[in-house]
């Protein structure tokens, strides 16, 4: 892990924005509606795309509910707040000062991103590229999204650091052959540690400087 890194690839929810508490409220409501007997389901589906949730849970007689649930989720997201994870903006600034390339790599679609851009009109200016669900065929946990980001940035997978909070996202980064930093914004630090090269609570964490040090200066 001594090789200097050139690109930082960020998931969106739970990594750039501290939105997981809001999604927890939404999914706890929906899980009580459809699966009242399955305690903890709202936590179990964290990090899954809506399509993955549909394929696993909304089949058979529940397949007809997909449209209504999608409409409720879209309405919920239109009214969401998107606060940055503590310390993120300063961390991004430090990476920029080193000439590090920066990307958002998310399974969220363009409709969701329109809500994000409404809250943060200058977000695109903070990143070199932003990849969404429309940019790759297979979502996390497949590595396609991160490999696509490396290709778009013209860097090797060994030069990339992935920032993720979910198990699906972490697997995606690992299977892409990249260094992975886990954020304990969604899952416990102890659960993330065996799967990641580094684990931090947020971008104020004491270990953040170690992560900054693995990026070289390329300007």
In terms of quaternary structure, the protein is single chain
Detail the poorly predicted runs: none
Count up the helices: 10
Radius of gyration: 17 Å
CATH homology superfamily name of the largest domain: HAD superfamily/HAD-like
Write the layout of secondary structure elements.
Blueprint (H helix, E strand, L loop, with lengths): L6 E4 L9 H15 L6 H4 L5 H8 L8 H13 L9 H10 L3 E5 L4 H10 L9 E3 L12 H10 L6 E5 L2 H9 L3 E5 L5 H4 L5 E3 L7 H6 L6
Parallel strand pairs: 1-2, 1-4, 2-3, 4-5, 5-6
Comma- or semicolon-separated keywords:
single chain, 219 residues, alpha/beta, Rossmann fold, 2 domains, six-stranded parallel sheet, 6 strands
Textual characterization of the structure:
The chain is an alpha/beta fold and 219 residues long. The protein folds into two domains: 7-19 and 82-213, HAD superfamily/HAD-like (Rossmann fold, 3-Layer(aba) Sandwich); 20-78. It has helices spanning 20-34, 41-44, 50-57, 66-78, 88-97, 110-119, 144-153, 167-175, 189-192, 208-213, and strands spanning 7-10, 101-105, 129-131, 160-164, 179-183, 198-200. The chain has a six-stranded parallel sheet with strand order 3-2-1-4-5-6, sandwiched between helices. α8 links the parallel β4 (160-164) and β5. The longest helix is centred in the N-terminal third of the chain and has 15 residues, at 20-34. The protein is globular, with a radius of gyration of 17 Å. The model has no long low-confidence stretch (mean pLDDT 94).
């Amino acid at each position: 892990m001594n090789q200097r890194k050139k690109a930082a690839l960020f998931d969106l929810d739970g990594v750039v924005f501290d939105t997981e508490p809001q999604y927890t409220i939404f999914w706890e409501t929906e899980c009580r509606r459809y699966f009242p007997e399955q305690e903890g389901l709202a936590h179990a589906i964290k990090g899954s795309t809506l399509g993955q949730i549909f394929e696993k849970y909304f089949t058979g007689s529940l397949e007809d509910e997909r449209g209504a649930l999608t409409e409720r989720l879209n309405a919920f997201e239109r009214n969401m707040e998107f606060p940055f994870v503590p310390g993120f903006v300063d961390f991004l600034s430090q990476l920029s000062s080193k000439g590090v390339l920066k990307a958002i790599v998310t399974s969220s679609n363009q409709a969701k991103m329109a809500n994000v851009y409404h809250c943060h009109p200058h977000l695109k200016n903070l990143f070199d590229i932003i990849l969404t669900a429309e940019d790759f065929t297979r979502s996390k946990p497949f590595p396609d999204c991160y490999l696509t980001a490396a290709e778009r940035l013209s860097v090797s997978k060994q030069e990339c650091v992935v920032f993720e909070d979910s198990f699906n996202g972490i697997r995606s980064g690992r299977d892409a052959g990249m260094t992975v930093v886990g954020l304990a914004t969604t899952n416990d630090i102890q659960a993330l540690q065996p799967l990641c090269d580094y684990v931090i609570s947020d971008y104020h964490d004491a270990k953040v400087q170690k992560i900054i040090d693995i990026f070289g200066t390329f300007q």
